[in-house]
């Protein structure tokens, strides 16, 4: 990762003020308070993989109150911050929810008022991800800000390991591969938060959480041609009838949702230069369609044009 800022080499009496000044210059809109008398240190490193700007931040014990979270990221109002705690402990407070964060935990903070307090030796990696994507799958961010996906969850462990490796190999990826790996990483974050929500969200919201878990499972398994409503109900641990009721309460049908997400994923890939080498049939299979003919019929009914024509128009407009 490339260094962005460090207090190394600064006199101890100047380091905290320098950190404060740097954040002010980034228009971070933060209130920083020291919580111990030890020499202050801070370090920020950065790595870009596809659309993700991944930061690794180390700092001393500090209480940070913010109205806009996410210094170093101008023009990112449509984003939320996802972070993996690497060392030390922290506490986060947002949307009336408070959590103690331990090494390995994954957590979400939105760009709304909140507080993050870190211990000495604290380190985390963080990245901004689209709020719209999270909310489409998991619902409003108020449901899961400061709700950590714990380190012991298998999905969190997988996501954490993936990002460690992504940081390591990222510089060697082609632009198209970097975009795909970044997208996979975001899907893993969504799956982790969905699993934690199922464990901790109060019962009155259980139906909403079941639907969110179901949608997260769909996102992670779009390429599976056998994914259907019965298999989805089994995956989230409810009866098919109950899952159908929950979707219908929200004006949706399970099958329609699955096919719509497959079509949207296919459209995104057709417009992506990184997939231009893939034949239409191969791309269709990768989005869960059993045949190219079936894919073409559904795609034209949804978008009003054949997949080949859609790809050509999208790639021409991108030039």
Give a concise summary.
This protein has helices spanning 12-25, 131-138, 154-169, 175-200, 206-220, 229-236, 240-249, 254-270, 280-286, 292-303, 307-318, and strands at residues 2-6, 30-34, 42-49, 52-59, 62-66, 79-87, 90-94, 97-101, 106-109, 114-118, 122-130. The protein has 319 residues and is α+β, with helices and mostly antiparallel strands.
Give an overview in words.
- 45% of the residues lie in helices and 21% in strands.
- The chain contains 11 helices and 11 strands.
- It has a 6-stranded antiparallel sheet, sandwiched between helices. A 5-stranded antiparallel sheet has the order 2-5-10-7-8, covered by helices on one side.
- The longest helix has 26 residues.
- The chain is globular.
The proportion of residues forming helix, as a percent range, comes to 40-55%
Strand percentage: 15-25%
By DSSP, the count of extended strands is 11
The unreliable regions are 69-74
Q: Mean pLDDT, nearest integer?
A: 87
Structural class: alpha+beta
Number of helices: 11
- The end-to-end distance, rounded to whole angstroms, is 31 Å
The global form is: globular
SSE sequence, one letter per element: EHEEEEEEEEEEHHHHHHHHHH
Largest sheet: 6 strands, antiparallel
The Cα radius of gyration reads: 22 Å
How do the strands of the widest beta sheet line up side by side? 1-3-4-11-6-9
């Amino acid at each position: 990762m490339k260094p962005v800022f460090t207090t190394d080499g600064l006199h101890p009496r100047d380091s905290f003020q320098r950190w404060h000044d740097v954040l002010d210059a980034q228009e971070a809109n933060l209130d920083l308070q020291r919580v111990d008398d030890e020499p202050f240190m801070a370090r920020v490193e950065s790595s870009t993989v596809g659309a993700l700007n991944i930061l690794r931040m180390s700092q001393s014990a500090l209480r940070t109150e913010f109205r806009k979270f996410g210094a170093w990221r101008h023009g990112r109002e449509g984003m939320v911050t996802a972070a993996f705690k690497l060392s030390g402990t922290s506490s986060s407070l947002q949307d009336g929810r408070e959590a103690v964060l331990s090494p390995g935990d994954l957590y979400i903070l939105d760009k709304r008022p909140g507080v993050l307090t870190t211990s000495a030796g604290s380190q985390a990696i963080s990245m901004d991800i689209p709020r719209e994507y999270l909310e489409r799958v998991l619902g409003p961010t108020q449901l899961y800000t400061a709700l950590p996906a714990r380190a012991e969850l298998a999905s969190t462990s997988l996501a954490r390991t993936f990002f460690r490796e992504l940081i390591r190999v990222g510089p060697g990826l082609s632009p198209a591969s970097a975009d795909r790996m970044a997208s996979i990483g975001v899907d893993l974050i969504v799956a982790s938060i969905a699993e934690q929500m199922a464990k901790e969200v109060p019962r009155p919201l259980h139906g909403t959480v079941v639907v969110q878990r179901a949608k997260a499972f769909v996102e992670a398994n779009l390429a599976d041609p056998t994914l259907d409503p019965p298999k989805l109900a089994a995956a989230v641990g409810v009866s098919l009838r109950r899952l159908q009721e929950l979707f219908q309460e929200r004006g949706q049908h399970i099958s329609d949702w699955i096919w719509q997400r497959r079509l949207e994923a296919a459209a995104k890939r057709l417009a992506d230069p990184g997939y231009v080498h893939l034949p239409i049939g191969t791309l269709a299979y990768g989005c869960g369609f059993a045949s190219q003919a079936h894919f073409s019929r559904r795609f034209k009914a949804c978008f009003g044009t054949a997949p080949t024509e859609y790809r050509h128009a999208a790639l021409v407009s991108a030039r």
